[in-house]
Amino acid sequence: MEITSIIAIYVLFWVMSAFIILPIGIRNHHESGIEMVKGQADGAPVNFRPLRVLLLTTLLATAAFGLFYLNYIYGWITLDTIDVFDSRERLG
């Protein structure tokens, strides 16, 4: 696998991980019991910590990409493994 492919796939894992990590631990004003500022959105987070989100996203993306890359090298799960309907034999 070329380095450009590795970088592109890692970025995809990172973005996917960001969408998984973003809602974890976020509370709005109603849940926290804090008074809202006039004009503030109802769902605006009270305790958003971007550095924590970046760190957790990077850790999750690195672990997921590591498993993906090890599977790419060692071939633990292949198309034949997940082809439960034998569609590859019918097509060929």
SSE layout and pairing:
Elements: H1 3-21, H2 29-32, H3 50-74, H4 79-82, H5 87-91
Question: Describe it for me?
Answer:
The chain is 62% helix and 0% strand. Helix 1 crosses helix 3 (50-74). It is mostly helical and 92 residues long.
Keywords:
mainly alpha; 92 residues; 62% helix; 5 helices
Characterize this entry briefly.
With 92 residues, the chain is mainly alpha-helical. The protein has one domain. The chain is 62% helix and 0% strand.
Overall 3D form: elongated
Q: What's the mean pLDDT score?
A: 91
- The DSSP helix count reads 5
Radius of gyration: 20 Å
First and last CA, distance = 26 Å
Low-pLDDT runs of 5+ residues are none
Proportion in β-strands: under 5%
Please estimate the helix content.
55-70%
Q: Give the class from helix and strand content and strand pairing.
A: mainly alpha
- How many domain regions? 1
Main beta sheet: strand number and arrangement? Answer: none
Can you count the beta strands?
0
Secondary-structure element series: HHHHH
